[in-house]
Amino acid sequence: MPSGSTKSSSANSSAIWERSSASSISAAALNGPGIGRNSGRSPRLASATHDACGATDHAMGVTIRDVTDSGDFDSAGAFEAGDGDLAGRVVVITGGTKGIGIGLARYLGGCGARVAVTGRRQDGVDAATAELAGLGIDHLARSVNAADADATAELVADVFERWGRVDGLVANAQSFRPTTPLIEVSESDMDLLYNTGPKGTLWAMQAVYPHMREAGFGRIVTMATSMGFTGAAGYGPYAASNEAIRSLTRTAANEWGRDGITVNCVLPASVAHRLDPASDPQRAAAFAAMYDNHPIGRDGDPETDIAPAVAFLLSPASRYVTGQTISVDGGGLLRP
Predict the structure, then answer these.
(1) For residue 257, what are the CA distances in angstroms to 2, 76, 83, 320?
(2) Is 238 a catalytic residue?
């Protein structure tokens, strides 16, 4: 099953890849009303205004207050809606200048988060800066090669110096090669995908870890593809590198859970509507066939479909979810 999204191009035909493929997590998990209501008691009056995340809702009479990673329950066991609040949190988004990445930045910024986005091309970074500034989102944008461990560490150090905290990481950056049969895959193909994929993801995770450990709180979301499950023809190196990312996710969840850090992987489907059929006819044809036999029948939107699921995983509300792979593809993996 095809997935992914080209984020930027270079002379050697590689392109920053903004992931894709697999099932859906409800944005209602983040939106306060469904969580904040208690059972057997009258709803309390709201004391906060509605924000972009839907963390509060006057109509539902939900009170928002600060919560900690240890959990915040009232005497009847009702969960406080503020657990979904991202206001004031700092999130690093690698590969965050276009496609899924910029959609995440817009959504999380709209929830009140401060975002640091990276991209390989300076023109993409400049465009993201202009867009986020125009939306009034507190942000930092930097040109960083995901494969460069030192540059990634420097970015995270700058983020901490600016805001004094690093609460979340979305490891979204990876380079991509055009679809290639396994028999034709070269060493350079494998090196590119592994250097920017699992290795780049690891460098970012290592860079944020000390800050999260010190704070006793952290949320890491890696991005991969369902093609590791399906064995999509032509995507062998990409699928293999993404399976390595999922493995890193599980290992980090095991090693860092006692530090208050959760680590989960999202498999998004949000590329087909941005793909120029002329650029890759094989992929375009595969996408068309996929959505002919798809539960929802359309591609995912980065901001309205993918971002709410990621926002939940970045919030305190996800404290008991770690080491998981969550498909956000409108049910694509249900296809026969």
Answers:
(1) 33, 27, 18, 10
(2) yes
Task: Report the alpha-carbon distance of residue 137 to residue 139 in Å, rounded.
Answer: 6
Helix, strand or coil for residue 265? strand
10 Å CB burial of residue 55 (0-12, 13-18, 19+) is buried
> What are the structural domain ranges in the chain?
6-24+85-334
Of the residues 194, 238, 291, 320, which is catalytic?
238
**Whole-angstrom distance, CA of residue 238 vs CA of residue 224:** 9
pLDDT band per the 50, 70, 90 thresholds, residue 275: low
Which CATH superfamily does the domain covering 6-24+85-334 fall into?
A: NAD(P)-binding Rossmann-like Domain (3.40.50.720)
Do residues 225 and 175 touch, judged by C-beta distance below 8 A?
A: no
Q: Minimum mean pLDDT among 166-175, 229-238, 319-328: which range? A: 229-238
Q: Which residue is associated with the tokens 């493995």?
A: 247
Q: Are 172 and 103 in contact (CB under 8 A)?
A: no
pTM: 0.76
